[in-house]
C-alpha cells in the first residue's frame, strides 16, 4: 500500500469544520490509500485521535453525532463574563473561561476513555501550546484524553489544563497547521487540511472585537507558517482549505453532515494528483 | 571555517568549525554534495564549533537537509551553541529538523 | 546593489515599544565603523526610531527622542466614550473605532519630534513603515504622506488606541501582520539587511483576565514574528543578519529610565555581528 511512501495527514485548527477531514478520509479509504501518521491540532484532534485508534470513518461520524450536541458548548459561564467586565468585584480564579467545560470533558472521556498513545494503530501526534512559555508542544505519549482536552482548550472559550508541570492550551496559538511535525518525522507525502478563522460579521461587543483581533493574528500566523513550510519541506505537500458557503460558527455541531460532504469533495479533487505521486517510482 | 568528517558505521559525522554564512556557504554546499553523491546520506552535523550563522548559511543547511531526505537519509544537528540556537529557533529550523544533545543519540536515531 | 557595486544596506526595526531604543545601540556601532545605512523600515515602536534614523538623527539625538516620545502622560487621558461603548455596547452602540486611551498626547509627542508638516519625501534615505488593515488583517506599507501620521498609525496598538483611517482603509498596529518587516526592505532592493527584532514579553502569571488575554496575544505575536522571519529567511537571496536582544526583566512601555540599559543591550548585540557585517559589505 502507498508504494512504500509514508503519508502524513495533518488536521489544522478549526473546531467543528475539522469534520471535513472525515470526508477526505472516507474517499482515501475507498481508494485503498492508507494514512501512516496523523498530526492534529485543536478540535480536529478528536477525529485524528479516534482515527489513529483504529475507528472507522463511519463509526467516528456516528459517535460525533451522538456526542457533540449543541448543549456541550452552550453553557456559558456567567461568572466569567462578569469577571471580564468587573475584575475587582468578582474574584478571579486560576484562569478564566467563558464556557462550562464539564459536559465537554465528560463527552471527550466517553469517546476516548483510558486509551493511551500506545493503543493507536498508526503514530499520533497532538499539537498543543505551553501557555506560560508560548512554546509549541507535541504530545505523543500518555493519556490521549488529556492530550485532546489540552489542545481543545481555546483560551477565552475553554480553560487550559494543567498536565504535569505545564499549563497546556490549544495548539492553534503556536502552530495552526502543524506541518513541521510531519516534516520532522520524515513523511514523503503530506496532506494538510486547514481552516481560516476570519469572520466577516460586524463586531457588536468587546469580546467580538478581541476575537477579531486574535483572528487577524492567527490567520497571519497560518499564512506565514504555510509559506515557510512550503519552502522548507522535502516531500510532496498538498494543502487543502475547504471552502464553506454558509457562515459556520465555532460550535455549529448540527452542520457536521454538510461539512463532511465538503471534505469528500476536496478528497475527490485531491485524488488524481495524489495517485500520480504514489505511482511514480524512483 | 573548517569542515571535516568521519564515518561511524553507516553514519557520517560532519564537524563544522567557525561561521556558516554567505562567505562560507559555497564550501559547505560543495562538501555535502560530495558526500551525497558518494551515497552518504545519513549525516550528523556537529555544531559545537559553530559560533555564527546568517540567513545565507541557513539556506545552505536546509538545502543539505532536503537533499539527504530526498534520498531517504536525513541530517541531524548536535551540540548547537546558545547564540546559534536562538537563530535556529527564530528561523523555524527547530521545527523542521531534529536536534540531539549528543552524537551518540543522533547516530542511534538513524538505526 | 549600489552604483559603486557595493551591497545596499537596510536597517529594519521591528515592533517592541520602548525596547526599540536598542536601535540606538546598533547605530552607535555602525557610526563607529563609518557604515552608512541606505534605507530604513520600521514597525510600530520601530517606526519612531526608524523614521528618526532615516531623517539623519545621530545616536545622541535619538536618546533625546526617546525621552520626547515615551512621556509618562501618554496613557493618562482615558477616552470615556470608548469605555462606555465597551461596557454598555447596546446602550452606546459598539463600533470598530474604539480606543481606551485618548491618543492626543501620543500624536503630539510624535509631531514634536518630527514636525507636523514633514513628509516621507523629506527623509535623507528612504523610509517605510508598516500597519495592518483592520478589516482584512493584511499588512499595509506606508511610504508617502505625513511622517507623523504614518508613525502614529503604525504604532496604533488596538484597544489601547483607536484605529485610524488612511487611503480608505482602517489601520492599526503593523505588529499584527508583519512585526519584523524584512520583506519590505528586500522588495525595495536591499542586498544586506540588519533585522532588529524583539520577542513580545510573556506574563509571569496568567491569573487575571487581563494577563490571561494579553498572554494569548503575546503567544500569537511571538509565533507570527518567528514564522514570518523563517519564511523571509528562506524565500529571498538577500543576506539577513538577525539581531534579537534579550531583556530578562520586563520593561514597562514608558519606562524611560531603562533607555540607557536598552541602548547598551542593543550595542552589545550589534558588536557580535559587526565582524561579519564588514565582510559582507566588502563582498561584490
What's the structural blueprint in terms of helices and strands?
The complex is a heterotrimer of chains A (282), B (111) and C (284).
Chain A: E1 7-11, H1 20-30, E2 37-41, H2 44-52, H3 57-67, H4 70-74, H5 78-85, H6 102-112, E3 124-130, E4 136-139, H7 144-151, E5 161-163, E6 166-170, H8 179-184, E7 189-193, H9 206-232, E8 236-240, H10 256-279
Parallel strand pairs in A: 1-2, 1-7, 2-3, 7-8
Antiparallel strand pairs in A: 3-4, 3-6, 5-6
Chain B: E1 2-8, E2 11-20, H1 25-37, E3 42-53, H2 55-70, E4 74-78, H3 82-90, E5 99-100, H4 103-109
Parallel strand pairs in B: 2-3, 3-4, 4-5
Antiparallel strand pairs in B: 1-2
Chain C: E1 9-13, H1 22-32, E2 39-43, H2 45-55, H3 59-69, H4 80-87, H5 89-92, H6 104-114, E3 127-133, E4 139-142, H7 147-154, E5 164-166, E6 169-173, H8 182-187, E7 192-196, H9 209-235, E8 239-243, H10 259-282
Helix pairs in contact in C: 1-3, 1-10, 2-3, 2-7, 6-7
Describe the structure.
The complex is a heterotrimer of chains A (282), B (111) and C (284). Chain A is of the alpha/beta class and 282 residues long. Chain A has ten helices and eight strands. Chain A is globular and about 55 Å long. In chain B, α1 packs parallel to α2. Chain B is globular and about 30 Å long. Chain C is globular and about 65 Å long. The mean pLDDT of chain C is 91. In chain C, α1 links the parallel β1 and β2. Chain C has 284 residues and is an alpha/beta fold. Classes of the chains: A alpha/beta (282), B alpha/beta (111), C alpha/beta (284). At the A-C interface, α5 and α9 of A face α9 of C.
Amino acid at each position: 500500500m502507498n508504494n512504500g511512501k509514508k503519508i502524513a495527514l495533518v488536521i489544522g485548527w478549526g473546531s467543528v469544520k475539522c469534520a471535513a477531514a472525515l470526508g477526505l478520509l472516507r474517499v482515501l479509504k475507498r481508494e485503498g490509500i492508507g494514512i501512516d501518521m496523523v498530526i492534529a491540532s485543536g478540535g480536529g484532534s478528536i477525529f485524528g485521535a479516534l482515527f489513529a485508534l483504529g475507528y472507522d470513518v463511519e463509526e467516528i461520524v456516528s459517535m460525533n453525532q451522538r456526542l457533540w450536541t449543541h448543549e456541550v458548548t452552550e453553557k456559558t459561564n456567567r461568572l466569567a463574563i462578569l469577571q471580564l467586565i468587573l475584575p475587582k468585584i468578582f474574584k478571579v480564579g486560576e484562569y478564566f473561561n467563558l464556557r462550562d467545560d464539564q459536559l465537554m470533558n465528560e463527552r471527550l472521556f466517553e469517546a476516548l476513555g483510558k486509551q493511551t498513545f500506545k493503543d493507536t494503530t498508526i503514530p499520533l501526534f497532538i499539537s498543543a501550546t505551553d501557555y506560560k512559555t508560548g512554546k509549541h508542544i507535541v504530545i505523543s505519549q500518555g493519556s490521549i484524553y488529556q492530550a485532546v482536552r489540552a489542545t481543545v482548550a481555546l483560551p477565552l472559550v475553554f480553560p487550559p489544563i494543567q498536565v504535569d508541570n505545564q499549563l497546556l492550551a490549544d495548539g492553534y496559538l503556536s502552530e495552526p497547521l502543524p506541518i513541521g511535525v510531519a516534516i520532522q518525522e520524515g513523511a514523503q507525502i503530506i496532506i494538510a487540511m486547514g481552516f481560516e478563522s476570519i469572520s466577516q460579521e460586524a463586531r457588536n461587543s468587546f469580546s467580538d472585537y478581541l476575537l477579531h483581533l486574535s483572528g487577524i493574528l492567527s490567520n497571519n500566523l497560518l499564512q506565514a507558517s504555510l509559506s515557510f513550510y512550503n519552502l522548507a519541506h522535502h516531500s510532496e505537500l498538498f494543502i487543502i482549505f475547504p471552502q464553506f458557503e454558509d457562515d459556520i460558527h465555532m460550535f455549529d455541531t448540527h452542520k457536521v453532515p454538510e461539512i463532511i460532504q465538503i471534505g469528500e469533495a476536496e478528497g475527490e479533487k485531491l485524488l488524481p494528483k495524489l495517485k500520480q505521486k504514489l505511482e511514480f517510482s524512483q | 571555517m573548517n569542515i571535516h568528517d568521519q564515518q561511524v558505521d553507516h553514519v557520517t559525522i560532519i564537524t563544522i568549525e567557525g561561521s556558516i554564512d554567505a562567505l562560507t556557504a559555497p564550501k559547505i554546499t560543495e562538501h555535502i554534495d560530495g558526500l551525497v553523491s558518494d551515497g552518504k546520506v545519513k549525516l550528523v552535523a556537529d555544531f559545537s564549533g559553530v559560533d555564527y550563522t546568517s540567513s545565507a548559511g541557513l539556506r545552505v543547511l536546509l538545502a543539505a537537509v532536503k537533499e539527504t531526505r530526498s534520498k531517504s537519509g536525513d541530517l541531524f544537528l548536535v551540540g548547537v551553541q546558545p547564540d546559534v540556537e536562538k537563530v535556529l529557533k527564530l528561523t523555524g529550523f527547530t521545527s523542521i529538523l531534529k536536534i540531539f544533545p549528543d552524537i551518540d543519540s543522533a547516530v542511534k536515531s538513524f538505526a | 546593489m549600489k552604483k559603486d557595486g557595493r551591497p545596499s544596506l537596510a536597517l529594519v526595526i521591528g515592533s517592541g515599544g520602548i525596547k526599540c531604543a536598542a536601535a540606538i545601540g546598533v547605530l552607535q556601532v555602525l557610526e563607529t565603523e563609518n557604515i552608512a545605512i541606505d534605507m530604513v523600515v520600521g514597525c510600530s515602536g520601530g517606526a519612531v526610531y526608524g523614521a528618526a534614523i532615516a531623517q539623519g538623527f545621530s545616536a545622541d539625538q535619538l536618546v533625546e527622542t526617546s525621552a520626547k516620545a515615551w512621556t509618562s502622560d501618554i496613557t493618562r487621558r482615558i477616552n470615556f466614550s470608548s469605555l462606555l461603548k465597551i461596557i454598555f455596547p447596546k446602550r452606546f452602540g459598539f463600533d470598530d473605532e474604539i480606543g481606551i486611551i485618548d491618543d492626543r498626547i501620543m500624536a503630539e509627542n510624535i509631531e514634536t519630534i518630527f514636525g507636523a508638516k514633514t513628509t516621507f519625501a523629506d527623509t535623507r534615505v528612504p523610509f517605510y513603515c508598516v500597519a495592518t488593515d483592520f478589516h482584512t488583517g493584511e499588512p499595509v506599507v506606508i511610504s508617502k504622506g505625513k511622517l507623523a501620521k504614518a508613525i502614529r498609525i503604525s504604532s496604533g496598538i488596538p484597544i489601547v488606541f483607536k484605529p485610524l483611517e488612511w487611503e480608505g482603509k482602517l489601520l492599526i498596529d503593523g505588529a499584527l501582520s508583519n512585526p519584523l518587516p524584512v520583506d519590505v526592505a528586500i522588495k525595495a532592493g536591499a542586498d544586506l539587511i540588519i533585522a532588529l527584532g524583539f520577542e513580545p514579553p510573556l506574563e509571569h502569571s496568567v491569573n487575571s483576565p487581563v494577563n490571561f488575554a494579553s498572554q494569548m496575544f503575546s503567544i500569537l505575536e511571538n509565533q507570527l514574528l518567528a514564522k514570518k522571519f523563517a519564511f523571509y529567511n528562506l524565500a529571498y537571496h538577500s543576506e539577513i543578519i538577525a539581531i534579537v536582544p534579550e531583556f530578562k526583566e520586563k520593561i514597562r512601555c514608558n519606562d524611560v529610565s531603562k533607555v540607557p540599559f536598552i541602548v547598551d543591550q542593543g550595542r552589545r548585540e550589534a558588536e557580535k555581528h559587526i565582524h561579519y557585517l564588514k565582510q559582507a559589505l566588502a563582498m561584490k
